[in-house]
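re: that chain from earlier
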Amino acid sequence: MYWCKLKLTYIAALTGGFVLLLGLQSCRPDKTQPNGTLKYFDIAGYFKADTSKLQKLNPAVNKTVTHNGISENKTVHIPNWGQELNLFIQSDINRPAWKNSYNVLNTDSLIIYTAKTPDLRTTKIMIRKDNGKVKWLVIFNHTKNLLYETVEKLSYFPDSAYQIAKSQHVKLMGKNLYVVKGVLKK
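^ sequence. v structure.
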């Protein structure tokens, strides 16, 4: 009789685990369209691939950080490119809820995504391509709530440079301007 209870408990645990795994799988956001393609340019995928490449190359970077007009410049090796370019990765607009949230202008060499409503964090993305290869990418982000307002301009030039310009106004604390500029040494 004991082995029967043990067997039923084992079966219940296996079934419960299987149902849990299926439930977790269904909670994962699907970023692709029904035909398996992304609606918009894959910002997250592009930067994850580029950060992986930069991590392997480990180039020296002439990095300038400016806060409210006061600058500091150093030549450094970035220990974690994923963290360094995380604001770019977070600007990915391929979420199911946003599939119809951007106007798209697509020419042979330029793609521009513009938010249809002002409540979206990423308001504009401009991508310049040449023969299918990204030449530069500029992202504009804006966040506003009762406590603060943040405006970001993220510029990226593959294998060359990047810049993060951020203006933040926090109530009761005032305004801060940040600029991080990195130029890869060749």
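The chain has one domain: 40-184.
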